[in-house]
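Deliverable D4.2, example record:
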Amino acid sequence: MTREAYKPVPVDIETTRKRWARDPAFKDAYDALADEFEAMAELVRARHTAGLTQADVAQRMGIAQASVGRLESSAGNRRHAPSLATLRRYADAVGCKLHIALTPAKKTHRKAG
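Output generated by the structure prediction step:
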């Protein structure tokens, strides 16, 4: 019996996301998590800007590297949603200050009353 060689299938994530985005249910679900995706991307950006690995951040925070991995990929997962205290510790570990801002949502037409 011969074993077949492993042949990974190349995937273009952006093309795949665009194809899936044509499905209204996918688009609604993706859009509902947009703020969480943005927050998680900001964590990774800050870590990369600081020139740190997940292991570096974990050591500075006094937690396991796997915990930093979960923190950076927790969008949509309520079990691993970080607390403000955890976000402050992460910000400190990457040499940043945590800022939270609320911005006006798209204007909606409200009835006066």
